[in-house]
Amino acid sequence: MQNERVKLRAVEPADIDFIYRLENDIDNILTTEHYELVSRHAIEQYVLSLGQDLYASGQMRLVIEANDTPEKLPIGCLELFDADATHHRAGIGIYIVAEKHKKGYASAALGMMIDYCFKILGLHQLFCNIAEDNLSSLKLFKKHNFQIVGLKKDWRHHGNSWKNEYLLQLINE
To answer: What is residue 47's predicted lDDT score, i.e. its pLDDT?
Structure first.
C-alpha cells in the first residue's frame, strides 16, 4: 500500500537489523510496556514467523518507507495487535525513527492503515494505548479522530515513578 508520502509493506528478512534497532531503541522501549532488550536471534525468529493470518497470530506488522527518499530505507513500523475476529477490533501502534519525526510520515501511514483496517479488513474499531505525557502521539491519533475513552491510572512504571496511560478508540461508523 502506498500514498504520496509513504509506502506500507510486509516485513522481509532484510528488515531484521532495522527491527532489531527499533526494538532496542531506548525511546521506543519507554513508549511501550516491554522494557527488556531483544536479541537479534529473537527478532530473526519473529520475522521468519510473520505472514500468518491476522486473526491466527493476533498481530500484523508493516514496515514504513518514505517515498521521498531515493534509497527506500525503512523509517518505521506500524503494528496491529490483539486482533479479535469476534468483535472486529484491533489495537494499533506506530513508531517512526527519531530523525524522521515531525515530517508527516506517521500521519500518512496511520491514515492509510485506518482505511485498510476499516475498508479491507472490515474492522469495526481500532484502539491504542498512549502514555499521558506522550503529547505528540496523542496529537497524531486525535488528528485521525481517535477519542480518549479512558485513563488508566499509574499504568506504567518508570524508574521510581508511575505514569498514567490513555485508552483511545476509533469506531468505524
So the answer is: 81
Identify the DSSP state of 104: S
Instruction: Report H helices in 36-168.
Output: 40-49, 54-57, 105-115, 135-143
Taking the C-alpha atoms of residue 49 and residue 74, their distance in angstroms, rounded to an integer, is 20
The dihedral region occupied by 54, where left means phi > 0, alpha psi between -120 and 50, and beta the remainder, is: alpha
Which residue stretches of the chain have pLDDT < 50?
none
Burial of residue 122 (CB within 10 Å: 0-12, 13-18, 19+) is exposed
Task: Give the strand pairing for 125-131 and 89-96.
Answer: parallel
Residue 23, pLDDT score: 83
Residue-level pLDDT at 103: 93
Amino acid identity of residue 107, one-letter, is S
Q: How many residues appear in the chain? A: 173
Query: Which amino acid does the sequence have at 127?
Result: F
Q: DSSP code of 120?
A: I
The residue type of 150 is G
